[in-house]
Design a protein that fits this description.
Oligomer: heterodimer
Strand order of the largest sheet of chain A: 5-6-7-8
CATH class of chain A: Mainly Beta
Strand order of the largest sheet of chain B: 1-2
CATH architecture of the largest domain in chain B: Up-down Bundle
CATH superfamily of chain A: Rieske [2Fe-2S] iron-sulphur domain
Number of strands of chain A: 10
CATH superfamily of the largest domain in chain B: Cytochrome Bc1 Complex, Chain C
Number of domains of chain B: 2
Number of helices of chain A: 3
Largest interface: A-B, 11 and 12 residues
Order of helices and strands of chain B: HHEHHHHHHHEHHHHHHHH
CATH class of the largest domain in chain B: Mainly Alpha
Shape of chain B: globular
Distance between the termini of chain B: 32 Å
CATH topology of chain A: Rieske Iron-sulfur Protein
Helix content of chain B: 55-70%
Largest sheet of chain A: 4 strands, antiparallel
CATH architecture of chain A: 3-layer Sandwich
Strand content of chain B: under 5%
Number of domains of chain A: 1
Number of strands of chain B: 2
Largest sheet of chain B: 2 strands, antiparallel
């Protein structure tokens, strides 16, 4: 062992001990972190089915999903046309209206009713854009497709995962 | 205490240390001169620190999911066990952690009794230790109430009713403790609040306990005063830290054994029945660590007398340093005391056993004999033996004791006699 640069048995033992110790410590810490994640009983409540048969064109209903409001807006043909006529270059977060709805179900805009700025709930049919939304907290204006047009919010309102179970029922989540 | 002036090498370190000498404290803790003959019974201080921190951390986590309400508490504990990610693990660590905490504290206390660590100049360390022990019992009792099972409810009823034994004001005190006319939702709420508070009081007392320890320094298996630092001492780090860690790992294996293989063996199955104020379980017992005192309580056929005797059994420990008249600390050099020490250990084990048994027949007789002997030990045997006992000659320093051919102290002691 005269050569100091040579790896000794003791070096191996140190490394092995520290490695096992670190793995053990990590395995011990993980449950204490994971306990704060949503548990199975919360995850089990993570889908919501909505009957939309009674919603008239031009109206919006709001349902609660995962503790957050979801807007379901049944848009008129005028509103759809208006949303699609917008020049994408004018948009802060360019996105086609077609990409924000399900094909063939163009009248339904299903959208998380949470302002992307700091999480307030925007008001329907308010703001500078007809049929759009306005967030009262810090003044973000959204258009009839839920896209950010004016104000501090950085991106369009989020479209959650959803599907049409049948013509009258939407399953969110 | 080592009196050397510590100076950080880095400029930033020096700047900081001049304003808040934390680095000096760390240096003191690292270099703290420790008797070189400390055996594994001395590792329980570190183990207890680990126990306290484990209870605090798991407790804070459990409080994130627990609901302190008479209608919801039981369900929320089941929610922790079944739904919360790793909730079962964290709760089992906490509930078994209480038992492990008491196991370690009893070993720590008996170590002190054997080696005379409570004697001058360490009386304050001992008294703070007993205060910690008292707070531990309060915290354990209140924690046991929180799941709001049958044992929780009736344990709380029985223990709070102890105070009703006080003449004149007893009833008012129990009503005040309950915040109701029986153990009820207000009781549960305040117990939760206090259960969360007490560990931090304990933590504060632990700091004082260690501070008081670092003034005279550790006692040691030979029990003699030593010069610090000297050839009789080693720096705390790495010598004691590595020994403490090794002992802690062994302790954790036993701990994990309970948590993973027998998590309910130390508890009582009746506590998985929701609290019912209309029905008392057939056989109420406290957790194992309180059984000796429970046996003392039940051994007296008088309500007030039983309560007084039970509390005396704990409070007598506060004056222990003055009840023991012997100048020699370690039982290694006290042939008579050494035998009484083991009889006391046996006595307390017997009391614990009969505390778990029904209070009738032979068990009641044993409880009474055990109780009488317990007080006899502290009030008569200790003072008298201190005067009459002819102690073995003490070594002059630890090195002589350790280096005289064997680490076995009794052999060292005999060699010492020849000298």
């Amino acid at each position: 062992m005269a050569d100091n640069k040579k790896t000794t048995r003791r070096d191996f033992l140190y490394t092995a001990t520290y490695t096992i110790g670190a793995v053990g410590l990590g395995a011990t810490i993980w449950p204490f972190i994971d306990q704060m994640n949503p548990d199975k009983s919360v995850q089990a409540l993570a889908t919501t089915e909505v009957d939309v048969s009674t919603v008239e064109p031009g109206n919006t209903i709001t349902v609660l999903w995962r503790g957050k409001p979801v807007f379901l807006k049944r848009r008129t043909q005028d509103e759809i046309n208006e949303a699609r006529a917008v020049n994408l270059k004018e948009l802060k977060d360019p996105q086609k209206d077609e990409d924000r709805v399900k094909e063939g179900k163009d009248e339904w805009l299903v959208m998380l009713g949470v302002c992307t700025h700091l999480g307030c709930v925007p008001l329907s049919n308010k703001g500078d854009y007809k049929g759009g939304w306005f967030c009262p907290c810090h003044g973000s204006h959204y258009d009839v497709s839920g896209r950010i047009r004016k104000g501090p919010a950085p991106v369009n309102m989020e479209i959650p995962k959803y599907e049409f179970v049948d013509n009258n029922t939407i399953k969110i989540g | 205490m080592s009196d050397h002036e510590y100076q950080p090498t880095s400029k930033a370190g020096k700047w900081f240390n001049d304003r808040l000498p934390l680095l000096s404290l760390v240096s003191h803790l690292k270099d703290y001169p420790t008797p070189k003959n400390l055996n594994y019974w001395w590792t329980f201080g570190g183990i207890l620190t680990f126990c306290l921190l484990t209870q605090i951390i798991t407790g804070i986590v459990l409080a994130m999911h627990y609901v302190a309400h008479a209608d919801l508490a039981f369900g929320s504990v089941e929610h922790i066990m079944r739904d919360v990610n790793y909730g079962w693990l964290i709760r089992y660590i906490h509930s078994n952690g209480a038992s492990m905490f008491f196991l370690a504290v009893y070993i720590h206390i008996f170590r002190s009794l054997f080696y005379g660590s409570y004697k001058s100049p360490r009386e304050i360390i001992w008294i703070i230790g007993i205060l910690i022990y008292l707070l531990m019992m309060a915290a354990a009792f209140m924690g046991y109430v929180l799941p709001w099972g049958q044992m929780s409810f009736w344990g709380a009823t029985v223990i709070t009713n102890l105070f009703s034994a006080i003449p004149l004001v007893g009833e008012s005190i129990t009503t005040w403790l309950w915040g109701a006319y029986s153990v009820d939702n207000p009781t549960l709420n305040r117990f939760f609040s206090l259960h969360y508070l007490i560990p931090f009081l304990i933590l504060g007392l632990v700091v004082l306990h260690i501070w008081a320890l670092h003034v005279p320094g550790n006692n040691n298996p030979v029990g003699i005063d030593i010069k610090k630092p000297s050839k009789d001492t080693v720096p705390f780090h790495p010598y004691i830290t590595i020994k403490d860690i090794f002992a802690l790992l062994v302790f954790m294996i036993i701990f994990a054994g309970f948590v993973f293989f027998a998590p309910n063996v130390l508890g009582h199955s009746d506590n998985y029945i929701p609290a019912n104020p209309m029905v008392t379980p057939a056989h109420i017992v406290p957790e194992w660590y309180l059984l000796p005192f429970y046996a003392i309580l039940r051994s007296v056929p008088d309500k007030l007398g039983g309560v007084i005797l039970m509390f005396s059994a704990i409070f007598i420990l506060f004056i222990l340093p003055w009840l023991d008249t012997s100048k020699v600390r370690s039982a290694v050099f006290r042939p008579i005391y050494r035998q009484f020490f083991w009889i006391l250990v046996l006595d307390i084990l017997v009391l614990g056993y009969v505390g778990a048994m029904p209070a009738e027949g032979i068990y009641l007789v044993l409880a009474r004999v055990g109780t009488i002997y317990y007080f006899l030990h502290f009030l008569v045997i200790l003072p008298v033996v201190g005067y009459l006992e002819k102690t073995d000659p003490l070594p002059i320093n630890i090195s002589d004791a350790v280096m005289s051919g064997s680490s076995n102290l009794s052999i060292a002691k005999k060699d010492e006699k020849k000298v």
